[in-house]
Amino acid sequence: MDAFWKRVQAIKELYPSVISNQGNVSYDKDSKVVTTDETAIANKIKAQDTARASAATAKADLKASAKAKLIAGEKLTEDEANTIVL
Fold first, then answer.
1. Are 72 and 64 in contact (CB under 8 A)?
2. How far apart are CA 20 and CA 34, in angstroms?
3. What pLDDT is attached to residue 86?
4. Distance between CA 56 and CA 51 in Å, rounded?
5. pLDDT tens-place string over residues 76-85
């Protein structure tokens, strides 16, 4: 995800009334300026990046666990089974 879309997602989450942006100015449905906090947006982007990285790591770990169990002939959990593409 590029920096633009990360910013859009952060603004949507922090300021749900915002429906458009022009540069660093955000507007609501009535075309009124919505005051945004750039520090809060930057922090939200960092938190979202961390969450995406954690989710990717958890998925990779789950796939590795499923593979190891398949090789060993052990039962898989439902989550592990869901990682397998048939």
1. no
2. 10
3. 62
4. 9
5. 999 998 888 7
Q: How far apart are CA 47 and CA 63, in angstroms?
A: 24
Q: What is the pLDDT of residues 30-50, one digit of tens each?
A: 999 999 999 999 999 999 999
Do the bridges between strand 25-27 and strand 20-22 make them parallel or antiparallel, or are there none, so unpaired?
antiparallel
Q: Are the beta carbons of 36 and 15 closer than 8 angstroms?
A: yes
Rg (CA), the chain: 20
For position 83, what pLDDT does the model report? Answer: 86
DSSP 3-state of 15? coil
DSSP character at residue 74: P
> CA–CA distance from 19 to each of 6, 32, 39, 49 (Å)?
15, 10, 20, 23
Look over the chain and give the mean of its residue pLDDT values, rounded to a whole number. 93
